[in-house]
Amino acid sequence: MWYLHDEESEKFRNEQFTLAVVNISKQPSGVEYIFPYTAVESPTGEKVVVTNDEFFRNAWTALYIADPQSALAFHKYVQVVMFENRKFEIKYAYKLSDKQKGIVDAKTGTLLFAPSEDLYVHAQELRKEQALTLARTAMPIDYLRYYVTELFVQYETETNPIVKYIVCFKIDGIMENIFRKHKDYKSSDVVNRKIEASYTVLKDQIFDVETNVRAHFAPTVEMPKGVKIDAATAAKVNSLAKERLGDEYVKTIFLGNKWSEFKENKYPYRVMHLSIPVAIIVKRGDKYLINYYDIAKSPHGGDWNMMVKMGAGFQPVNYK
Question: Which domains does the chain have, with CATH numbers?
Answer without folding.
Answer: 2-217 (no CATH), 221-318 (3.10.450)
